[in-house]
Amino acid sequence: MTQEFDSIVAGARDAFARAGTPAELENAKAQYVGKSGRITELMKGLAALSVEEKKTRGAAINQAKQAIEAALTQRRRSLADAELEAQLKAEALDVSLPGRIREPGGLHPVSLTMERIEQIFASMGFDVADGPEIESDWHSFTSLNNPPNHPARSMQDTFYVDIDGDDGIPYNLRPHTSPMQVRYAHQHIKRYQEAVQRGDPMPEIRVIAPGRTYRVDSDATHSPMFHQCEGLWLGENVSFKDLKVVFTDFCRTFFESDDLALRFRPSFFPFTEPSAEIDIQFQSGPLAGRWLEVAGSGQVHPTVVRNMGLDPEKHIGFAFGMGPDRLTMLRYGVNDLRLFFDGDIRFLKQFR
Ligand code: DAH
């Protein structure tokens, strides 16, 4: 190759090297091997030459053209490599970041209380029953000696559901677990009927029914959704004395303290007669000396027993309804009920 071609090739290499992007490179390419590029122009100039000259000059031009194309290809490749490199860098995953830790879960504090309540009552021979949260008016109120339009109904601010029951009265989100008293008796009615037929002693009903309950109520100590646990013990010889023994035992086991006093304070519920609120008092610790209400209770009203399909002379006993949320607050020293239902992991993981 002559010096003329050498410098063209060197110029092309230079121009290609200066092109920093594929578009710049294509522009530089056009100046050499494009339609009116240097090499193309030189080719055109061959036409005027003799055959002999065409041969030697043509060969030299071709050689230069090949060298330019090789340089072009090489530059294209290195630009593409650089682009890929930049992209990889931009999209890089920094695998040295600490992973997201999945901490071990745990039971919700109210669930812990529910489990504890179930264990304690199961150890005293109580069955554990579960029932619907959408309940008929009859089960929630009427069966419990609380007929339509009775003023005692206003003791509970109830959520009604847009479905009418058989009596034309809408279903509700159960405002308490007490409907489980009648439901449970109905579920086991065969056992009692068979005992009557055989002349056997009447089987007892001894059950607790923990679960979710609902009322139109919301502040630091009330939540529209809350928990209750119903208790029912009926038999031929079950008395208020048994209620006192059972409930005192329960509280002392639950709070792991014998230093605990109970008070049965006269009250009113349509489904019990007599009725009592149960208050407890710790003798030591931060709550010492204060009476704290933990349950409603009473001797089951004969009308309720009849609505169970049973004979109130044969099934006598007591019922109670307590608040596991309240028990959880007392046990762990939590003073705002809403903390239980906010779902804040920082609060909940303390109970793990
Ligand atoms: N159901 C009552 C309430 O939610 C609590 C209650 C009181 C339940 C007395 C009972 C009972 O079983 O005997 O306010």
Automatic annotation (TrEMBL):
UniProt keywords, alphabetically: Aminoacyl-tRNA synthetase, ATP-binding, Cytoplasm, Ligase, Magnesium, Metal-binding, Nucleotide-binding, Protein biosynthesis
PROSITE patterns: AA_TRNA_LIGASE_II
Documented EC number(s): 6.1.1.20
Cofactor info, note text: Binds 2 magnesium ions per tetramer.
Record-level GO BP terms: phenylalanyl-tRNA aminoacylation
Record GO cellular component, one term: cytoplasm
Family: Belongs to the class-II aminoacyl-tRNA synthetase family. Phe-tRNA synthetase alpha subunit type 1 subfamily.
UniProt protein name: Phenylalanine--tRNA ligase alpha subunit
Annotated organism of origin: Ramlibacter ginsenosidimutans
Name of the coding gene: pheS
